[in-house]
Design goal:
- The structure is a single chain.
- Helices cover 81% and strands 0% of the residues.
- With 100 residues, it is mainly α.
- The protein is elongated and about 40 Å long.
């Protein structure tokens, strides 16, 4: 139970950080702050979550949440690409980490 709660918490936090970034997409300074917070969160938590995901059976709901997070990340990347260069490589970093 602890593992799924940790994964759930991680996915919820990612979703919240992405939503906050989407909400300030037209305010570059705030967007940069949100993206930096997301980046720091991913750097801090991503490796542990990948291990947990690899060590446990992933429910359909969790799979759908992960897809949703990647979709939001890709959408935000497209929108912010012309506004900030901070997001360069974040998606690739996450995908490379899961392939280890």
């Amino acid at each position: 139970m602890q593992r799924s709660e940790t994964i759930e918490d991680f996915l919820n936090t990612c979703g919240e950080l992405l939503t906050r970034a989407e909400d300030v997409i037209d305010t570059p300074h705030e967007l940069k702050t949100c993206l930096k917070e997301l980046d720091n969160f991913l750097i801090l938590k991503w490796s542990d979550i990948v291990v947990e995901l690899n060590d446990s059976k992933i429910s359909l709901d969790t799979q759908n949440q992960i897809k949703f997070i990647f979709t939001k990340l890709a959408k935000l990347e497209l929108i912010s690409k012309s506004k900030l260069s901070l997001f360069d490589g974040m998606k690739e970093f996450m995908q490379r980490s899961t392939n280890r």
